[in-house]
Design goal:
6-stranded antiparallel beta sheet; alpha+beta
Length: about 350
């Protein structure tokens, strides 16, 4: 005989779970239906955002360059101080050895002169205070002790200076690392945007950049633009020889450059040393605020924070290393916010 059992009723807990899941599904479906589809940025929008990121990367690059230059300077200064301390310690040891020899001779002859005992004191200042009560000091002994005293003070001062510079070096290295990460982060963000383009759009953008590089590497007619000086003319010619070289942040040539790397390299070729960063180069000579007064070879500073620099090329153009993805080339000054020129 067949068994007729009542179907098992779902538990209240199971009903609640199913009901909640169903309600959530309805809500998600409704949200999906009402949500606007994500809009893909067009080629021009991507280019505008990428250009802005490149500008921000260059700002960070100049800060990176400044930290790197400071690090190199500190390392040289610390090395010099450490060498001085080592030599000074050797001189101090020789002075002490001389006093030790004097003490040994006196001991062998029947005892150590109280003045010599004080010579060997670890505290020369204390010695001089006590020595004033003794009438047994020769002028030669006093002079010897003063030399030790002066050398100890000198070494203490140099060691303290080295300690401070080492602290400064540590913080500078931290800043350098942070700026490098910032530059790399901006460039990675730009690349991520470029990767959203279709192959066709990417090819079109690359073609635009290639055309800009080609059309901006032609020699500018300088017949109406005299050079600022013989050295400025020679520096400009050196920069011209690098046209077509790629922009790479932190680079100073000769295979690649960033903006201030190009200008400092160009002047270095004619024996003129100018600072490494664009901000420092802005204070390297006489400022010229009227564009009509600029001459070939003058530095040209752009943007309010002075993070970009090039060389005036005449006829309203600048020769510079623009940004990542571009090469050393000419460009109309009107494409960037001009601040002032600098005549070296």
């Amino acid at each position: 005989m067949a068994s007729h059992r009542r179907p098992k009723q779902p538990s209240r807990t199971r009903v609640t779970v199913l009901t909640t899941a169903a309600a959530a599904a309805v809500v998600l479906s409704a949200n999906a239906a009402n949500a606007a589809p994500s809009e893909k940025l067009g080629k021009d929008e991507v280019k505008a955002k990428v250009d802005k990121l490149y500008e921000q990367a260059e700002q960070a690059t100049e800060k990176y360059n400044g930290a790197k230059e400071k690090q190199q300077k500190l390392q040289k200064e610390i090395s010099t101080i450490q060498d001085n301390v080592a030599r000074g310690q050797q001189e101090l040891n020789k002075l002490r050895d001389g006093l030790g020899s004097m003490a040994t001779a006196q001991y062998r002859s029947g005892g150590i002169d109280p003045s010599v005992q004080l010579f060997l004191s670890s505290n020369p200042d204390d010695y001089l205070d006590k020595a004033s009560t003794l009438d047994q000091l020769s002028s030669q002994q006093v002079e010897a002790l003063k030399k030790i005293q002066d050398k100890q003070r000198e070494l203490a001062q140099e060691r303290a200076e080295a300690t401070e510079k080492l602290k400064d070096l540590a913080s500078t290295r931290t800043e350098l690392g942070n700026k490098k990460k910032e530059v790399q982060g901006k460039l990675a963000e730009a690349q991520k945007l470029l990767n959203t383009l279709t192959a066709k759009e990417k090819a079109a953008l690359d073609a635009e950049q290639a055309r800009a590089n080609r059309s901006s590497t032609e020699r500018v007619d300088l017949k109406d633009a005299p050079p600022a000086s013989g050295r400025a003319s020679a520096a400009f010619s050196a920069a011209q020889s690098q046209i077509g070289k790629p922009y790479v942040y932190g680079a100073t040539g000769p295979s690649s450059f960033d903006c201030s790397g190009l200008t400092s390299w160009a002047y270095a070729q004619v024996g003129v040393s100018i600072p490494r960063t664009s901000e420092a180069q802005a204070n390297a000579g006489t400022r010229i605020y009227n564009q009509s007064d600029l001459k070939v070879g003058d530095l040209v500073i752009f943007y309010g924070d002075m993070h970009h620099v090039g060389l005036y090329a005449g006829n309203g153009q600048v020769l510079h290393a623009p940004h990542t993805g571009a090469v050393v080339r000419y460009e109309a000054m009107g494409n960037m916010p001009f601040q002032f020129g600098v005549r070296i």
